[in-house]
Structures are given as structure tokens and as C-alpha cells.
Amino acid sequence: MIRVLLVDDQDLFRAGVKVILDAQDGIEVVGDAADGLEGVRLVEELQPDVVLMDLRMPEMDGVEATRQVFLPDRVARRANPVRVVVLTTFDLDDRAATAIRHGASGFLLKDTTPAQLADAIRTVHAGNAVLSPGNLTNLLEHSLTTPTPPPKEFGTLTAKEKEVFDAVARGLSNAEIGAEVFASESTVKTHVGSILRKLGLRDRVQIVVFAYENGLLA
Questions:
Q1: Same domain, 8 and 105
Q2: Which Pfam families does the UniProt record give (predicted)?
Q3: Cβ(104)–Cβ(86) under 8 Å?
Q4: pLDDT tens column, 64-89
């Protein structure tokens, strides 16, 4: 069962999403909050698998709430990872890009369909993004961040890990990466885990962000 926390300042929206998600197989809404401050508290209390986080809220907005959810000391205390999907009313939202940099696994427009919403929750729960690397790159470019040289940690990757890093940044699946670098899916998974550990990243979404921000996308 995927445990979901809703964080949005509109009571009617939260109630509607709860009805939609509770009707889905394998998804359970375990709590809801009307602002980011309460949302951060409930993440620690309820330990959800996925948080649907509105960007614009009183007390604390979704960008700051996402940043606080992924503070290193809080992440270290959790038994299982928490994924955040931010909710916005329009595409190419600078706040969405910032939230993704803070650790969110992507964003959804608020007019998404119930099926798309459920699919997105299952996708991020599996450790993937809810938007393609190409769309993520467009979003990051829109936020006008100038790429910087890669940090020294990137130099600790082996030649094979750099191949896998590039393939992940381009949005390839483990099976596609295996075919490209002539390795089994389990070996690719091991390489991805090593890349995340060496670069201090949480998931594949953060690899795309890292690649963009450090000028490593071809």
C-alpha cells in the first residue's frame, strides 16, 4: 500500500483528491494539511511514502516545505524514503524547478486526470520522475540557472559509471541502459546506486538535475 499525504490550502481540493486516491488499488491517503508548516510536521509524524505538495500556501509555501522535508538530518532519521510531487496551476513554474532542486520528484498540473494522478504516485514511489528528462530540462532552463563546472565528486565515477550517468540523464530505463553499455539490468542498478552514493544524490531525478546544473547534458 502506497501511503500518501496531501498538502494543499484548498479544503475542497484536498477532499476531492482524497476521494479519488482512496478509490485506487494500492493507494491510501493517510493524512492532509492546509499549509506547508503542518505538512512538514505530518511528514515526520506519519512517514508517508508520497507527498502531494501544493506550491502556493500560507504559513509556509511548498518550495520551503519541500526543502525542509529533505533536510539531511530528517532524511537520515527515516526508515523509508519519502517522495514529493509538487502541484502547480501552470507549466514552466519557476517554483516547481526550485522544489525539484530541493528534492521533489517532479510536478503535476492541478487539472491532471485521476488516472494520471494515480500513475504519477506509483511512478515516484518506484523512484522515477513524473515528467520526462526532456521536460525537466526545459523547466530547469526556464528558471535561468547558469550551469557550473562539475564538482570534484564527479571525477570519482568510473568510466562505466559515467556512461550510466549519461544514459540516466537522458532518461533511459535500466533495460535500455544495459543494452547501450552491454551490461545486465542488475549491474546497471548497481552502477546507479554507486553514482547516487558518490554524488550524494537521492534518486534518478536528482541525476538529471545534477547533469543539467553542471553542464553535463549533451
A1: yes
A2: GerE, Response_reg
A3: yes
A4: 999 999 998 999 888 889 999 998 87
